[in-house]
Structure formats: C-alpha cells, structure tokens
Amino acid sequence: MNSPAPRRLVALLALAGALSLPAWSAPVAPQPGAVSTEAGQLAIRHEKFKLANGFEVILVEDHRLPLVAFNLWVHAGPRNEAQGQTGFAHLFEHLMFAGSRHIPRGEFDKYIDAAGGTDANGSTNFDRTNYFFTLPSNQLALGLWLKADMLGWMIDEVDSVSLANQQDVVRNERRQSYENRPYGVADEAMYQALYPAGHPYRASVIGSHADIQSIQLKDVKDFARTYYRPNNATLVLAGDFDPKAAKALLQKYFGTLKAGPKPPEVHVAMPEITKERRVVVTDRVELSRLTLAWHTPPMFKAGDAELDVAAHVLGGGKASRLYGLLVRDKQLAQSVEVGQGSQSLSSVFEIEVVARPGASLDEIEALVDAEVARLAAEPPTEAEVAQARATIETQLLQRMEKVASLADLVNHYNQMADDPGFVGQDLARYAKLKPADVSATVAQWLQKDRRVAVIAKPGEQVLPPEVPTPPAPTQVGKGEREALNAAEPWRAKPPAAAKAKALALPAAQSFTLANGLTVIHSPKPGLPLVSASLVLRAGQAANPARHPGLAGFVAAMLPEGTTTRSAQQIAEGLAALGATLNAQAGSEEVRIDFSGRKAAAREGLALLADVALHPAFGTTEIERQKAQRLAALAQQREQAPVLASAIGNRVVFGDGHPLAENALGTGASIQAIDVAALRSFWQAHYRPEQAALVVAGDLTEAELRALVEPLFGAWKVEGTAPPETRLPPPRPIGARTVVVDKPGAPQTALAVVAPGPLASTPDVAPLKVMNAALGGLFTSRINNQLREVKGYTYGIYSGYTLGRERGQFGIRGSVRTDVTGAALADMWKEIEGIRATPMGAAELNRVRNAQLLSLPGLFDTNLAVVAGYAGNWSSGLPLSAITDLPKQYGAVTPATALKAAQQHLDPAQLIVVAVGDKAKVLPQLDAIGRKAEVRDADGRPVAPSAGQ
Q1: What is the pLDDT of residues 323-369, one digit of tens each?
Q2: Are 696 and 781 members of one domain?
Q3: In whole angstroms, what is the distance from residue 35 CA to residue 43 CA?
Q4: InterPro entries recorded for this chain (predicted)?
C-alpha cells in the first residue's frame, strides 16, 4: 500500500472531530445479502450502468453488515506499458496515494483510518490496477469523495519530489520481494524465458531497477492522460447502502470528470515455444527447486477450466498425485505447487517442486514428466474431478463472504468476462467438463517441447549492476504540476458522516460437555459456510526442555494418519468436501482448524475429531515428518525476516527458556523425537478439559450440539493431567544489538524486540491505540518516517503479542542495507517521542477510531470470528473480551496512551536483531553508538574474527 508523507491536518482534524461514534447494540436479525445460493446455483445480485463520461459503476447491495466496500479498477497494467518502461503501472499505483488537489499529501490514508476503514490497499497484476478500501456504511459519501479525487485530481499533485520518493519505495519493494526473497530471481527468470523481448508479460510486474529509476515526470503525466480517465475505470460498490442515494452521490463526485481518449487496444499474439528452454539460476537458497511452465489459453477461453482442474489433480493439495508421489511416498520433495495462472493475453501453467536436501532434481523431473504424460494419456478419475469442483466452489463462496473480496470478484468478472455476474457461468465451466476433456487438454498444451524449465540451485546470486539512486529533489520545479479536470472548490471539504447505525460485534455463547470440553459458538447465518477451531493449551510453552519443537511435531503429525484413516484417506476426504484442515502449534496453544461449506460440516468436524482424538503416530510418517522439519529448518536460514524473528525470540527469552528455541526445534531434537515422546505429549496435553472447540458460521446452536455431542462427547481423559507449570520469566541477553551475517544481502531484516505485557493487563486498549500511532498502522510515525519521508523501506511495523503467560513487543521490517544505521536512529527518535509527550487531538482521534470504528470490518468472516474467540480462550480472557472492545477503545485518552507507552515501551530493554551484510552493517551501527554482537543463524554467539 502506498501513501505519502503528511503536509497538513486541518481538514483531517475537522473530520475526526465530527465523527459520530455508533451505538453498540445486541445482536440483530440477519439482513439480506447479495449472494444467492438458491437451488445450489451461485449468483450475485447487481446493477451495472455508466455515467455520461463513460465511468462504469456496479452496485452490489448487501446488508449483512453495516459496511461498504469501494473497489476501483483502472483497466491498465503491464500489458499497457511501453517498451523500456517495465514496472510503470505498478509505480503509478504507488503514486495514486501521493495526494491530490483536494486531499493534501499524506492525508488520504489518515482519512481511512479516522473513518474506521479496513482492507485498504492497492495492487497491480499484468492486466489491471485496483484500489480498494472498506468503510462503515455511514461513510459512503467520504469513500466516494476519496475515490473521485484519486482518479480525477491525483495528477495535480504529482511532481518530481513525490515521484522520486515512490521510486525509492518501489525499489525497496523489489529488493524485498525479489532480490532478498528465496527464489525471487528464479521466478523472474521464468517469465523472461517464457516471453520474448517486447511482450508486456516478459518483465515482472514490479519492473527492473533501471526502468523504475528512468521513469520521468512527463511519462507519468502521459500515462495518466491515457489510462487514468473515467472511461477506463470501473467502480464496484458492495455493501450496505441505498442504491438511489448512492447513484446521486456517484453523479455528484464522478460526473464532472472529463473523459479521455479511448486507450489503445492491446493485440499481442500468444508466444509459441517449439523447443524446450532450460535455464539454470543460482540464488542464496538452501534447497534446489524445479519449475516447469507452459503457455496456456487465456482466462475463460477453451481449455482454461480443464487446465485448472488438471492443476488440482496434479498438485492441488495433499490428495494430489504429485504431492502423494514426491512428498509422501518417495520423500524427494519438500513442497509441490501446481497452478493455472489465468491472464488476459495468455495464461501460464506452472509446476513448482522444492527438493529435499540431497534429492536429485533429475529424478524429480522424470517423475513429474511421467505423471503429466499419464494424465495426458488417461483421464483423471471422476473422484479427482469432483474434488477439484468442490474446492473451486468452496473457494468462490469464501471470496464472497467479505464485501471487500466480493467487490473485487465482481470487478474481476466484469473486466475479464464482460459480465459482473459471471459466477454461475464460471462454475458451469467446471460442472460440464468430463474427465476425458481434462486429459485431452493436457495432451494438447503440456507437451515437453513447449515448456520452460527453470532450475534454481544454491549459489551466488547474480544481479544486474546496481542502478544508483540520484539525490532526491527537495523542491518542486516550475511548471511540474498540471490538471486534467477543472478545479471545483467545494471538493476541498470532506463530506460529513451520516448517522452511524447501531452495531453489534459477533457475540458468542458457550456450553460445556460432560467431559469438560468447552464449546464456543458464534452463529453467522447467510452464506452456507462454517469454520471451526479446536484449540488446546499445548503449544511451544509446553515443550519439555529435552525436546524443543515437540509441540509442533505433534501438531504436524495429526493429519498424517489416525487409527482408522491413513494420511492419504484424510487428504482425500477433505478434498472431496472441498474443505481445509490444518494443525499448527503456536507459542502457547495448538489449533486444529477446519473451514468449508455447511454441507461439509458434519464430515469435516468428524475428520477434525478423528485427527485430534485418535492419532496413529505411525513410524513411517514420523520419519517423513523428521525430514520435512529438518528441511524447513534449512529454509528458514534463507528467509531473512523469518530468521530475524527466530533470533529475536532467543535473545529476548534467553537460552533455556521454552520460547527461546526455534519452534521447529533443533536438528538434534528433531532426530531424537520418537513415537513414545509424541504419544506422551499428546496424552498429557490433548485433554477435553483443557480444550475449546470454537465454531462460527451458518449453524444454529441446536445444529451444533447435534454435531458435537456424538463426535467429541466420548473423548475420554487418558491418565492424570500434568501439574500446571508456569513459564519462567524472560531472561534477555546483555547485548543490545545482534547481527546475523547474510553476505551480499540488498536489505537488512530488522526485529527490534523486548519482553511485553500479558493479555490480562488492564490497559490493553490504551496500549493498542498507542502502538497504532507508533508503528501499528500504515500511517504510523515509524512507517511514515522510514518509508514516506526517507524512502528507506517498503514497510515497517510494530506490535504487541499478548498471551496468557507470554508477552512481547516487536518492530519488524526490512530496510535498504546502506541505511540500516540511519533507519534505527530514526526509529529511536519516534520511540522516544511517543514516550515523551501526549498525542494531540487529531492523532489520537485518528488512531483510536482506526481501532474502534474498524471493529465490524475486522470480524467479517467466520475465520476471523473463530480466530478472535480461540485466541481469547487461549489467553484466558472471557467471551465478553470481544464485545467489550468498543467501550474500552472509546475510553482511551492522550494521558492513558502516554502512560501505556511509558510503562510498556522501555528503549533500554529493546534488543536489535539485524540480519544482513555484516561488512556493511557493522560500521553503520558503530557510527550510531550501537556495539553489536555477531551471532550465527541458530542464534549462537560467533567469535570475532581477526581485525573485527
């Protein structure tokens, strides 16, 4: 997301002061939504029309929640870029947040915060650029005012200063997303091998450093004149609004925008490969990777659906052929991913296999080739096709659960299929295809001589020569600004909010089974979807000292077989339901999560109960899981942000603390785990009286009770519960700065960490409001200074992890290597500043409202509701902790926020972990007075080398 540095806050202060806080009511009856599932047919009720200037609008009236999603698509992406201007469309996305004539630089995102906005961002893919946010429904006028100013008057404020700043930001994004991310350069190499020079898909969406830096202000203005006009954009409004009132506001805010010329059409032939192209890329990775890619038919064209199903059959999860063969049976692969990447000009079918240490890529490739050839020669089974259909339908339903993703789906169908309501026809493509159609399409398109093979191997990363960053201009040049639309002085004043509706956060009730299992239920009628989580206090904190990583190992083993089902049968059962089931251990709890359609709830919860209550802990699966976790340990070493967080835990909690060790454990501890250790831990900690089943979705209490009693009522306690032990207090290391060497890294990954308060602390609300101002929001002090003012980073954020017995504060993000020291110095100024003086009225109102008014948008899916109640149960909080949030946030004052900062944010306790190029980082740290201790990738001290 992109937003510029602040200029003035006068209008924002007026808006924040004028906001009327909503009343908070008891739960209300469900309201009608836009999605219909009558007779098993999915449909989206909508209305589409155009203003006189060609601006296209789609209204999706949906009253499930008092929210409105604003989703603007500009029909321009890399497919519209001129040669030599790769990354232009994406850079323009960033510039769209750089202020406009009536919204001064830096205030756009602050308006969103102050109004309680959620899901605010922008994104670019090869075919389009979108801009979106969701607001409370009483802010319909504000949202349209913001969107209209972005589209109509953004170009008025773009100048050499704002352009240079966003060029810095985008280049930092490139470093983070490609050059400092494992396999990023291999992903880029794949597209360069697939597409010839001059094809708009050849370069990555983000573009090259050289092209990004070479973009001139004139290019920006030309692009705006051509593409950022009302006749080349579509706005979807989805949510709780009155269509008549919305139409009047749309005419008011968008009707006077001048139409532009018709954008030039894009006609590009699909490239044809007649001989296999092979590319070898070396990168700073631990595990080798094979990628096979083919050109395939464009989105929604003949063959697209068939290849989507083929992707599910080959690699669409644990039930797929390649996962079963390469990961489960032969144990050659760490992961398998297969997908049909559908796009407008041509699609890409991609098979990606990450090899286990020591595995042969040649052997892997031969096995993949054999499976593709088998699918081309023999149709998949009816069951495999049915699994793909079920998964696709469930995923579509889940996209419609949030008004934000529903709006984006409608815009997607509108551009790509010329029909906003295409969802029924979309599903019909899959319903009518036959297994033989899948094999025939695979035979036609996935031929060996028509593909690209990219081999990524550990080695030196080879990048183009560094493109220097010229000194940033400090003043706007004469004549740099111009206007596409006439000035309209009335637009300078933001519209007032309408009266807020009475709101209710999703409440929950609980009941307890005879065996002590707590069941927490939050009904959410509407879409036929259900999510559930079995949560137990059996996380990393429960690990025995001799078995670090044991809690995570036990959780990972649950879906790998029960006393009556094999791992393959579990995977196939979930695939047939189109559902997901995952088990994962956190620091204090383990969660087994299920999500799927209501029709799958009975069988899905039965699978959840089976894996939790009857794990087999088979010897073969244990050995396979050992290899999987050892490889995952190796992968962590190549991911600088993950490594920084892991080392951060070690230095904060101290050696010997259960939370100091890597959640995966150590190489030695993984090898030492056996069936006895796994079963002993499971018997001690997987107990009904120490667990809660949290369920949200389209189930009544009666329906839930009828499901739960037969499945979990017979859960018997085995043995005596272990005595409750308390976590020891953290024992942070003495050093204040730790460096982990990553030679040649273009960025330094930072984790600035310290012990923090527990979830039971009475000042949680002031603490979260204070943190929102410091580093929790995009508009926070730290992110604004380091990204928008200085251009040091793509993004950097702070947050508190509040647990039952564990608390931690952290600031995390990556900065350009050459400004590591300067970034930390700026960070410390912001930390000291928030502890020194109370926030002013404008800032407090904005960040408090960002927490308070956004609450309905933060609990708008079953998964979000389940996560909230499961997390609170694990932390020892009552059910009312969620429904009490409005009152608690509303009571925060400048004084209470300041007190929270002074009590829970001590700069003297903060430990800096920097994962980056030691040779370049250490001198910078010395220059700002931070003596660093060097540690290895396991967090152990490294003896100084000669001359250090």
Answers
A1: 999 999 999 999 999 999 999 999 999 999 999 999 999 999 999 99
A2: no
A3: 6
A4: Metalloenz_LuxS/M16 (IPR011249), MPP/UQCRC_Complex (IPR050361), Pept_M16_N (IPR011765), Peptidase_M16_C (IPR007863)
